[in-house]
């Protein structure tokens, strides 16, 4: 990922690499990133799994309630420049919300990384929609679980806790920290 043509204002994701390297043991065919920021995660997935298709979605809006475009935002400029410079045929970027993406999606994924809108409602929908199109033994990864930017009941951690409680018979939690990594299992599967 250290490429002279890439621009990243934040590299938070790199602090997770040791965890991801240990836990992600599958050979994914399709990977989805919900919320792309500057493209670091998508490019990392492409480098780690060169034969995989990596789908990245981001509406490129700062606040979905106002639909305010982030066109002048440094992160959007970096994302578009990074994707343009990377020029990998296995990386497919779509400028759309996760709701609109999942509405028409027909692809099953082996890894889904959720780092979209960090509200309880948005994250809850992203988790359920992602889980529905995740293959058995696929990895569902949710970022910023402990991020505390909204009132307590509206944070990502509450969306994750509600999901893991409701779906406990269908999942195996592999890691729970700043990120959560879950494997989709068949109902009542033995771990």
Content of β-strand: 15-25%
Strand order of the largest sheet: 5-2-1-6-7-9-8
What is the H-and-E element order? HEHEEEHEHEHEHEE
Shape: globular
Mean pLDDT across the residues is 86
Rg, alpha carbons: 16 Å
Structural class: alpha/beta
Helix content range: 25-40%
How many helical elements? Answer: 6
The span between the termini is 34 Å
Point out poorly predicted stretches: none
E-strand count: 9
Outline the biggest β-sheet.
7 strands, mixed
Task: Tell me about this structure.
The chain has 191 residues and is an alpha/beta fold. The chain has helices spanning 17-23, 40-48, 74-86, 98-104, 120-132, 156-166, and strands at 30-34, 53-57, 61-63, 68-69, 91-94, 109-114, 134-142, 171-176, 180-184. Helix 5 (120-132) runs parallel beside helix 6 (156-166).
Task: Furnish the topology, listing elements before pairings.
Elements: H1 17-23, E1 30-34, H2 40-48, E2 53-57, E3 61-63, E4 68-69, H3 74-86, E5 91-94, H4 98-104, E6 109-114, H5 120-132, E7 134-142, H6 156-166, E8 171-176, E9 180-184
Parallel strand pairs: 1-2, 1-6, 2-5, 6-7
Antiparallel strand pairs: 3-4, 7-9, 8-9
Helix pairs in contact: 5-6
